[in-house]
Design a protein that fits this description.
Blueprint lengths: L5 E2 L2 E2 L12 H13 L4 H15 L20 H16 L6 H8 L1
Antiparallel strand pairs: 1-2
Length: 106
Amino acid sequence: MNYTVKQNGVDSMEKTTLSVKIDKDLKQQAEYILSELGLNLPTAINIFLRAVVRHGGLPFGTDYSLKPPALEQMNKLEIDAKLKEGFASMSKGKGQPASEFFDGLN
């Protein structure tokens, strides 16, 4: 499946081909729904992949996001484990500025 976005008649970025095997009925059902929305399958896939990048994980509720949980969502054991992990990393000369760490929690 090839999909190319053009801006002012010129390709906006280098493209690649994505080939996936999916259930035939699932594809047909999705194509029908997308066509009702004025979209085709390659456009919908492109929208989905951009959302994955923008969210840093799946753009819908799951536990599979790469973004760390907010401090308020962590229990004491999880916080202690993160602190120990950070101390061990710091002891090995690895680390990051505190501002970057706290930005990552938000």
